[in-house]
Amino acid sequence: FSFFGHNFLSVATLINILASSYYIGFLAIGQTFVIISGGIDLSVGTVMMCSALIGGVAYNVWHWPIALALGLVIVVATLFGILNGIIVAKLKIPPFIATLGTMMISMGFGAIISRVMTMRFPTITEPDGVFKFVFYKTQGGFPIGAVWLAGFFVIASVILGKTLLGRYTYSIGSNEEATRLSGVGVDNCRIGVYAISGFFAGLGAIVYISAYTSIIPGTGNGIELLAIAGVIIGGTSLAGGIGTLSGTLIGVYIMSILRQGLMSMNLQGQWQTFFTGIVVIGAVLLDNYRIKKANEIKKV
Predict the structure, then answer these.
(1) What local confidence, expressed as pLDDT, does residue 127 receive?
(2) Please, is 267 exposed, middle or buried when counting C-beta atoms within 10 Å of its C-beta (0-12, 13-18, 19+)?
């Protein structure tokens, strides 16, 4: 990219890479928990936008203080995550179908609550716009969102690597029935995992509305695929039981570097999507090869 692109190796490009990874990074962290457990969450993109829209309604229509409106964003997204968990764990609906349903529900719910209107958030010149400096970029242009992402990455890593929920998440993804027979509350763990995914979708929503002044219903369709792609590229297995959050962040930044590199080569957005898809397919093929080799070793 530095050879073919214009000014790719620059501070401005580095800041753009970091800034374009914020909300996708948060979504991908939550998605990692779900995929390691053997599930998938197709609703994170629309849940992120739905919660942002409802936060916009709270701020613009109900005249809530911006801090309470942002808090509502987190609550709404987490509740959607819990709903996903209940549908998957208690109603025994496959994760793909369950979250496809809640993807459409959240998309419609956000449009209904907002009355299909654009929700505006304060600009940096308004008093309430100070939250943009807190969650997105400082007045000096420092990408403060990267600090928030790093902080929650550490917290999530502790949960996944040092707590019972984290250990059970890996165990459920590796062998759900054996985990259940060992006395683990698999259903509650699944609900917890999807709640975490919803919570991180809420964080992604806050960072997103910090970066943009307005949001409309339908914005963000397909964002969940970018998050899933980052998780897969980072080495998390779609079969469950294998994955790391550090790998996920690396995957997210690889995608961001790819997009910025293609932009520096003056390639249009559809080419960015095209090459991202190729990278994802390659990552899945590598994952399948790794699983096949592992199974062959077990047979021996």
Answers:
(1) 84
(2) middle
Mean pLDDT to the nearest integer, 57-77: 96
Domain count, the chain: 1
Q: Is residue 6 domain-resident?
A: no
| Rounded distance between C-alpha atoms, residue 209 and residue 203, angstroms | 10
Residue 258 within any structural domain of the chain: no
Please tell me the predicted confidence (pLDDT) of residue 75.
98
The model scores a pTM over 0.90: yes
Q: What residues make up the domain containing 121? A: 21-245
- Distance CA(126)–CA(105), nearest Å, equals 34
